[in-house]
Amino acid sequence: MFERMMGYDSAEFQRIVLLMSKFLISSLLLALLGGVTGCSSTWEDFSLVHIPDIQQGNLVTPEMVAELKPGMSKRQVRFLLGTPILIDVFHPDRWDYYYALKKRNKPVDQKRFSVFFRRDKLLHYSGDIAPAENLQRLKDEKEQVVSVPDYEDEGGIFEALLDQVGVELEEE
C-alpha cells in the first residue's frame, strides 16, 4: 500500500529499503567502531584493555637537586630526596636513586641520580638530573596565595521547586 502511495513498484521499493538498511547498518557499525577506539589517533593506541602507566623508584626533581648543599648530613639528604633505592654494601658512602616511567606504547623514561658522602656529609652528586636554575623564582611561584570567596548556599533542587510554587521554607 505504501509503495502505491509513493509511486514505486514493489521491486523498486524493496531495493530502496534494502539500500537504506545497508546504509543504516554500516553507519551504526562505523559509529560503534569510533566509540570503541575512544578517538585513538593511531592503531597502536587502540586497545580494549587498559594499560596503566608504571612508575618505579624515587622521583628526584630538579628543585630537590637545587636544594642539595655540600656538607648536608645523610638524614637531611634522606629527608629531601627520600630513601635511596640502593645503598651498596661495599660503598656505603654512595646512595643511588633510580626512577623509571613506562607509558603505554612509549619507551621507558629512566633517570639515575647518585649522591656521594664522606664522613656522613654530602660531598657531591651526579646523574641525569640537573638542579633547577632559578630556585628562588620557583619558590615564589609555589608560595602564591590565592583568595577564594566564601561559599554561598543557594539551596538545592527541592528549594528551587518550592520557590517556583511559592512556598517558603523556614530558616533555622
UniProtKB/TrEMBL annotation:
Superkingdom as given in the UniProt entry: Bacteria
Any one biological process term the GO annotation gives: protein insertion into membrane
InterPro entries named among the record's database cross-references: BamE, BamE-like, BamE_dom
Domain Outer membrane protein assembly factor BamE: 57-124
Entry GO terms, CC: Bam protein complex
Keywords assigned by UniProt, alphabetized: Cell outer membrane, Membrane, Signal
GO molecular function, one term: protein-macromolecule adaptor activity
Gene3D superfamilies in alphabetical order: 3.30.1450.10
Subcellular location, record wording: Cell outer membrane
Keyword NAD attached: no
Family from the record: Belongs to the BamE family.
Subunit structure and binding partners: Part of the Bam complex.
HAMAP family per record: OM_assembly_BamE
Function: Part of the outer membrane protein assembly complex, which is involved in assembly and insertion of beta-barrel proteins into the outer membrane.
The name this protein goes by in its record: Outer membrane protein assembly factor BamE
Organism: endosymbiont of Riftia pachyptila (vent Ph05)
Lineage: Bacteria, Pseudomonadati, Pseudomonadota, Gammaproteobacteria, sulfur-oxidizing symbionts
